[in-house]
Amino acid sequence: MPDYGRPIEFGTFITPSALDPEHTVELAVASERAGLELVTFQDHPYQPRFLDTWTLMSWVGARTSRIRISANVHNLLLRPPAVLARAAASLDLLTGGRVALGLGAGGFAPAAVAMGAPSRTPAEQVGALGEAIAVIRELQDTDASGGVFLHNEHYPIRGAKRGPAPVQRPLPIWLGVLKPRGLRLIGTAADGWLPSFGRLEHGTDSLDAGHAIIDEAAVGAGREPRSIRRLLNVGPRDADPEILAELATRHGVDTFIVVGDDEALITDLGARIAPETRALVAERRAAAG
Prior knowledge:
- By secondary structure, this protein is an alpha/beta fold.
- It has a single domain, classed as Alpha-Beta Barrel (TIM Barrel).
- It has nine helices and eleven strands.
- It has helices at residues 21-33, 53-63, 81-94, 109-114, 122-140, 180-189, 204-220, 241-251, 263-288, and strands at residues 9-14, 38-41, 68-71, 74-75, 101-104, 148-150, 157-160, 173-175, 192-193, 229-234, 255-259.
- The strands form two sheets. Strands 3-2-1-11-10-9-8-5-4 form a nine-stranded parallel sheet, with helices on one face. It has a two-stranded antiparallel sheet with strand order 6-7.
- The longest helix has 26 residues, at 263-288.
- The chain is globular and about 55 Å long.
- The chain starts with 8 loop residues before the first strand and ends with a helix.
C-alpha cells in the first residue's frame, strides 16, 4: 500500500462521561497541553451516561485555543444534516476554524430507533449518508445564490436558506464507514476515512483494501487520492511508535487517534509516542527516496 506522504498527526478519543464531566473536559485540555492536533468524542445520544456531544464540544472549544475538535463519529440517525450543517459551521466560527465533522451511517440503530429515529436498512443508511453530505455542503455554500433545493429520498430540502459559512471552506467531513459503498462515497464526496483498527475484520489487509476502494473512486471522480485524509482509531496497546510507523509508511495512515481516558497516556502520547513515530516515519520515507 502506498505511503501518501502526508504529515503525521495525533489525537485522542475520549468518552463524554456525564458521571464526571469536568474530568472529560480536562482530558481534552490535557490533549492540547500535550501538543496533540485533535481531540474527538464518541456520539451516542441514546446513552444517558454520556454528555451530549455537541454541547461538550462547544464547551471544549471555549476551554482550548489550538486543538481541533470532532465527533468520532456523529450518529446520523439522530443528527439531521441540515441542523448538523449549521451547528458545525457555528462551532467552526466560534473556535476560529478548529472543527471537523465526523459522520457515521448509523450504528446502534435499535437504540437510535428507540429515541424516535427512522428505521433504515444498511443500504438506506449509506444512501442517507450520501444525501447528508450533499445537504451539508449546499447549506454551507454561501457563495451560491438562492435557496437550497434537493430532491432527496431521506433528506429532502425545499428552499432552505444558506449559511452560516464556516471558517474552513469546505469544512472537513470524515466518514466512519467500513463497507465498499461507504468507502466509495469517501472517494467521491468526503475528506477523510475514520475507521477503528479493532473493527477492521482482517486488520491491515482490510485497511489496504479500503484505501484501494477510496483511491479508485477518487480518481474516477477527478480527485487526488492523496488529498483524502486517512485517520485511524487505535487502542492503547497499539500506541507504539514501531507499530504506528508501520501503519503510516506501509498502510497509508496519516492521523492516529488513541482511544482512552487516561491522562498519563495522553501525556506520553505527546512527549514520547508522537515524536518517536514521526522520527521513524521520516527515516523510512528518506530511505525509500
